[in-house]
Specification:
alpha/beta, 49 strands, globular
Length: 1292
């Protein structure tokens, strides 16, 4: 991935955002000064009396006591709670302020006020979870005023009480995040009537999941274990229930990894009901029975097909046991242990649900319409539904995200009309593929807002439940999710997340730091959106250590963020510091430390390749950071005398697959230990993998007047061994400015590295393209001289142009920087702070699907290029949204300069049972990347038009590449220009031009680390060994040549060239060719793994690979995946690019299949059948060379019928992949050893345009043109042989 910041000119007019009313909390009736303002509820030594009717619900009586205690937390004196009916109250004259709390229709206090016309409760009657509170004047004779909290039902009353406590200064997170209460001397209630409810989403809650080791280890230390060994007993759940209710939630899925909610404590179920909590069970725990109950109490296997009776008895018991408690029943089933079932079918699942519903009506004695029930559409389950299942409308279809925060499905067709409605199961924590993420918060709130707004606006409003893992460390996303679910209408505006987070921060941490906290956590969300901690160990490191300073720029953002967070923390009082540390400073500090470890490991590898002595210092710093990670966790665990000990005990460093590592593992470190052989001074230039003295000539990326502010060009000088030297940098041009142009470096002891920044006095520089040269001399050893070429592009554009401008070979455009209406459609929403760089742009969720062909809502982007491109490309960066509407998948259309719009579907449609192809990489990098060819693009003004066709997709960035820009996984855009100057670094795959030539593209001193090859089942390759008459090597295992044929070729090809090369030659048959075994997988990764296994099994060392066509790509793949096995490669007429195969190959397959079907007995008969498919006799003879007469049985006679050695079906299915190349990003993999590319002058397989890309993958490549077509070796064998001999001859 690479950061480059690409310039945008005069963008003030392009910064357009949809306006909307931001999130606002309703005015509070409470004031806290000494100035009287209504009814006084508290003052010095004064606390209220809280009256509750004895006949009210137990949960309301309970919350009255919480209300009394909370007044004490604020005032220093607890309120008192008095149980009194209306008759005794109406005759009383309390000496203290009176608060009455009760439920309409259940409290004779509330009903008495209503009957006496003192309180109007008609607005609350029969409503779900609603409340109001107000000052009632003269509530009864002799009482001047009372403060009345009235609820429509149990939870309405509870929410009303907790809303009052929050407004006077007690946070919902007072216990779980140690938010201190706000101390007050006075509390006044004005005459404002305050109301809330009913909620936007009926059932709203959290799932405690993946709770080991953190929450479970902490729980064992804090609570008494149940008889089954679980710490999650009633005392624990009371804390959970209170938190959920304080957030105005009502639904909980309990911890289940090693727990059984209803059995671990017999009081768990009734306590939840008393509090007002609906209990459920997770997606694979139907009928209110825990997963662990299945293994303990189920008779028989968890399989409907073979153990229907046992499962029915087991499930019926769950319904019977929970029938008197508030329960939302999970229906359906999956396989045992959170997995798909091997025997379940759609028809069987219909039967399961129908039986479960009948069991519920039997146990509860209610109609289905009165029984809350949910069928969780998780993982493979939507695949069953998509087959057309018939299920009662009473069940809520509880859809899910993809475990990474991307909604898989929205209601379509008649689904919104179901009486049970729809729900959403969403993840802030996950265990599973592609990697777990269960350590600390990595959630971007803006993404949550965008996805849950889509869900709600498309009818998902019956159930919302979030997987919150251990709960601790996920306080912020949990609070945000619950606020959205309670009052979606307050979050209509695209910037409502900012307003909510600022307000929430003010309430938890104080108004003085609210804005700063918003800035910190918004930046934190952006940084974690680029990569989750658990994904950082993937190799190669995701952030480039070479291109555009990306790794160090990204890490510096973490350093800057920590500086800001630490300053805010230090400004707070000691009691607030604890909460700030838990929710803000800890994730920033811990996150920065983990990014430091992986960033410095990657930088250390680069430094060691350059033989820098400072590589050893980086290794020390990694070890210090690794130790600091443990210290940070200990600091957290030690808070408040160990209140949270063990809660963050999750391993998070050293992932090697999806599952968490068994222990924290320090990544492999790189050192410089050997002596520098030829120079004490080292030099590298920004963007180079090569360095001096490996090469004496380096080149910088181009400089331009449009180089964005803050983007540096630099060279670095460093020590390569212990010693001291002085250096001097001079320039060939007076308009080149150089910082640190001379100095002294030494190791150890003194500064060992120096960076010199290169800038240009543009008015003095020549117009157009030019170069200057820097000369860097070791003045203590004048023969040690490095030169650095500085390309300059001093271009100008018309002053009236407003738009985006090419810089370094590309035009990088943040999606929100479109031309304002009427040029662009006003319908688009700009979601600020969304994604990895700046924002996201999308259509409102209720927008109908748009027609392709450029007729819908459009975004217009003017841009200007200086380069005339023969093969320009457009790369569109989209959020990893799925095809949430399978009937109308995500698509976009685009057009440049008025051309006919092209339409692209970036994500394939599946059957609902699994994730689409490319999903894992998309969610890891947090983007679907869609690259399209534009063809020729002249220099000058242009206009890009983009149409998003679905409201389920978000575009974040667009890049027009006009000069073979350097590809990277992610990039930045810190650009200047009007309102757009706030664009931040690190975004999506932007790139800059890299000028490669075989002369200047050198390699590091050792081969870079390449990707770990995927697991492939290899096949043993059959081979012929050709030994030379006069060998130049001691044996066949030393420096052999391995010949790799092309499609439909074999080891018998190219025998004439195997002579006179002086080395032993292994001519191999690839899989599905010649005499080698067949395999259903036929792609370059599989072929390369076969070759690598062949090399290892034969003990071959320093091999040369020669491959033609398909064999060339196989050889390149081996070199990139296993550089340790290969000394050099020779690629014959193919390149490391994706290119569609000629249609002739598919035609050949058809002809060859006709031959097999005919059962021919002779080659002449086969040739006659093949002739209509290929007129060239030579080609036909080549193809027919694969015919043979197989033996009927071992030792038997050959069959009279000719058959092909190739499995035509397998090869036919593989044709679409054989034009591809398995590597897309030359930053991630390079072969740092010699490579020869031989191309036919009459062939189109290796055009001039791919030379820069070849140079990126193979920086030491040479190119030889041979007068021939594609069949280079057979058409001009002598020229090819001479090219090979010259390449292989020893070099000085």
């Amino acid at each position: 991935m690479a950061f480059i910041r690409l310039f945008t000119v005069a963008l003030a007019s392009l910064c357009f955002a949809t306006s909307a009313e931001a999130y606002q909390r309703k005015p509070s009736p409470f004031t806290f000064s000494s100035t009287p303002n209504g009814l006084q509820l508290g003052g010095p030594n004064l606390a209220p009396e809280i009256r509750i009717a004895p006949d009210d619900l137990p949960g309301v009586i309970r919350v009255a006591n919480d209300l009394a205690v909370d007044f004490g937390k604020v005032l220093g004196t607890n309120a008192s709670v008095v149980k009194a009916d209306w008759k005794s109250t109406a005759s009383s004259k309390p000496s203290r302020p009176v608060i009455i709390i009760g439920t309409v229709g259940r409290s004779n206090l509330i009903d008495g006020l209503a009957v006496s016309k003192k309180l109007d409760t008609t607005a609350l009657a029969s409503k779900w979870e609603s409340f109001s509170y107000q000052v009632v004047l003269n509530p009864w004779h002799g009482q001047e005023a009372a403060f009345v909290i009235a609820g429509s039902d149990l939870r309405g009353s509870v929410f009303g009480a907790y809303d009052v406590t929050e407004k006077i200064g007690v946070s919902p997170w007072h216990w779980w995040a140690d938010v201190p209460p706000t101390k007050r001397q006075y509390i006044w209630a004005s005459n404002l009537t305050y109301t809330e409810g009913p909620p936007s989403v009926k059932y709203r809650g959290i799932f405690l999941n993946d709770e080991s080791p953190g929450l479970t280890s902490w729980g064992h230390a804090k609570f008494k274990d149940s008889q089954y060994g679980s710490p999650f007993i009633t005392d624990f759940y009371k804390r959970i229930f209170e938190l959920v209710l304080r957030m105005k939630g009502n639904y909980v899925w309990p911890a289940m990894w090693s727990s059984m909610f209803y059995l671990d404590d017999s009081k768990n179920g009734p306590t939840a009901t008393e509090y007002g909590i609906f209990m459920g069970t997770s997606h694979h725990e139907p009928m209110a029975r825990a997963d662990k109950e299945q293994s303990r109490f189920l008779k028989g296997s968890w399989d409907w097909k073979s153990n229907k009776g046992g499962m029915q008895s087991f499930m019926q018991e769950g319904a019977n046991r929970s029938k008197n408690w508030s329960t939302i029943y999970t229906l359906g089933m999956r396989g045992s242990g959170d997995a798909a079932s091997a025997t379940l079918t759609a028809a069987a699942l219909e039967e399961v649900i129908a039986w479960q519903q009948s069991a519920l009506t039997k146990a509860l004695g209610k109609p289905l319409s009165q029984i809350p029930q949910a069928w969780v559409m998780y993982k493979e389950v939507p695949g069953y539904w998509q087959k057309g299942m018939k299920v009662s409308d009473a069940v809520t279809l509880l859809w899910s995200d993809d475990n990474r925060g991307n909604i898989r499905r929205i209601p379509i067709g008649n689904e919104p009309n179901r009486s049970g409605g729809s729900g959403m199961y969403y993840h802030f924590d996950y265990v599973g593929d592609p990697r777990n993420y269960k350590w600390i918060n990595t959630i971007q709130l803006q993404k949550t807002w965008e996805q849950m707004t889509l869900a709600y606006d498309r009818g998902i409003e019956n159930i919302w439940i979030a997987n919150v893992g251990d709960l601790k460390a996920l306080e912020l996303p949990t609070a945000h999710f619950m606020a959205l679910a309670w009052d979606r209408e307050s979050f209509q505006a695209v910037d409502s997340t900012k307003a909510w987070l600022t307000d929430w921060s003010s309430r938890q941490l104080g108004e003085a730091v609210a804005e700063s906290t918003f800035d910190i956590m918004t930046t934190y969300g952006k940084l974690t959106a680029r990569m989750k901690y658990e994904d950082l160990s993937r190799t190669p490191f995701y952030f480039s250590t070479v291109n555009y300073d990306e790794a160090e720029v990204n890490y510096q953002e973490w350093v800057d963020l920590l500086t800001k967070a630490q300053a805010v923390h230090d400004s707070l009082s000691s009691d607030v510091q604890v909460a700030f540390f838990e929710m803000v400073l800890h994730p920033v500090l811990a996150g920065k430390t983990v990014f430091e470890i992986y960033t410095k490991v990657a930088m250390g590898s680069k430094y060691a390749n350059e033989h820098r002595t400072s590589a050893n210092q980086l290794a020390k710093e990694v070890q210090i950071a690794f130790s600091a990670d443990s210290s940070i966790t200990k600091r957290y665990h030690g808070l408040l005398n160990g209140k949270w000990d063990k809660i963050l005990s999750q391993n998070h460093i050293g992932y090697s697959n999806w599952q968490e590592p068994a222990s924290q593992t320090l990544p492999r470190l790189s050192y410089t230990t050997s002596a520098a052989k030829n120079a004490l001074m080292g030099v590298t230039a920004q963007g180079n993998t090569a360095s001096f003295p490996t090469t004496a000539k380096l080149s910088l990326l181009p400089l331009s007047p449009f180089t964005p502010k803050g983007v540096d060009r630099w060279v670095e000088i460093y020590t390569r061994d212990n010693g001291t030297f002085s250096y001097k940098i001079t320039s060939s041009a007076s308009y080149i400015n150089i910082t640190n142009s001379q100095g002294k470096l030494s190791a150890p002891g003194g500064p060992s590295d120096a960076r010199s920044l290169i800038t240009v006095d543009w008015p003095s520089a020549p117009s157009g393209s030019s170069t200057a040269t820097l000369t860097i001399t070791n003045t203590d050893s004048p023969t040690a001289v490095a030169t650095v070429t500085v390309p300059l592009e001093n271009e100008v554009i018309r002053p009236d142009f407003k738009g985006h401008v090419e810089y370094a070979g590309a035009v990088s455009i943040e999606a929100e920087h479109f031309s304002p209406p009427p040029a662009s459609s006003a319908e688009y929403m700009v979601v600020p702070d969304y994604g990895r760089t700046l924002s996201g742009v999308k259509l409102p969720p209720k927008t109908p699907s748009q027609a392709a062909g450029g007729k819908g809502h459009v975004l217009v982007y003017p841009f200007y290029t200086f380069t005339s491109a023969s093969a320009a490309t457009l790369t569109v960066y989209l959020s990893p949204s799925e095809n949430a509407n399978p009937n109308s998948p995500n698509k976009y259309s685009f057009s440049v300069d008025g051309a006919s719009p092209a339409t692209v579907q970036p994500v394939p449609v599946g059957d609902g049972s699994k994730q689409p192809a490319g999903w894992a990489e998309a969610v890891i990098q947090n983007a679907y990347v869609s690259k399209q060819n534009l063809g020729k693009l002249a220099a000058g003004r242009h206009e890009l038009r983009l149409w998003l066709l679905e409201p389920t997709m978000v575009v974040t960035k667009l890049v027009v590449d006009v000069a073979f820009a350097r590809v990277a996984a992610q990039a930045g855009a810190s650009v200047g220009g009007g309102c757009c100057s706030t664009m931040s670094t690190a975004g999506v795959a932007v790139m800059a031009r890299r000028l490669f030539s075989s002369a200047s593209a050198a390699t590091p001193s050792s081969t870079t680390t390449n990707t770990v090859p995927p697991v492939v089942s290899t096949v043993p390759l059959v081979y012929d060994l050709h030994s030379p008459e006069n060998p130049t090597v001691p044996n066949k295992e030393t420096q052999p040549i391995i010949f790799i044929h092309g499609l439909f070729g074999s080891k018998k090809n190219n025998r004439s060239i195997t002579r006179d090369l002086g080395r032993h030659i292994f001519a191999i048959d690839l899989r599905n060719h010649g005499e080698s075994p067949h395999s259903p997988r036929h792609d370059y990764t599989a072929m390369s793994e076969d070759v690598a296994a062949f090399i290892r099994s034969h003990g071959l060392k320093d091999s040369t690979l020669i491959g033609h066509s398909m064999g060339a790509k196989a050889a390149m793949t081996v070199a990139l995946m296993h550089p340790d096995l290969v000394q050099n490669i020779i690629s014959v007429d193919n390149a490391p690019i994706d290119a569609r195969l000629e249609s002739s190959f598919a035609r050949y397959i058809q002809g060859l299949k006709k031959i097999e079907e005919a059962g021919v007995l002779s080659l002449s008969a086969a040739d006659k059948i093949l002739e209509p498919y290929e007129k060239n006799l030579v080609v036909r003879q080549f193809l027919l060379g694969n015919l043979h007469r197989p033996r009927v049985d071992p030792g038997g006679q050959p069959s009279p019928t000719l058959q092909f050695r190739n499995p035509l079906g397998i090869i036919g299915k593989s044709l679409d992949h054989l034009g591809d190349f398995p590597f897309k990003d030359p930053h991630q993999v390079r072969f740092g050893k010699p490579a020869l590319f031989v191309r036919g002058t009459k062939s189109h397989y290796v055009p001039d345009e791919v030379m820069p890309l070849i140079g990126q993958f193979f920086p030491l490549f040479e190119l030889v043109d041979v007068e021939s077509g594609h069949w280079v070796i057979s058409e001009n064998p002598e020229a090819f042989r001479q090219a090979v001999l010259r390449f292989l001859e020893p070099k000085e």
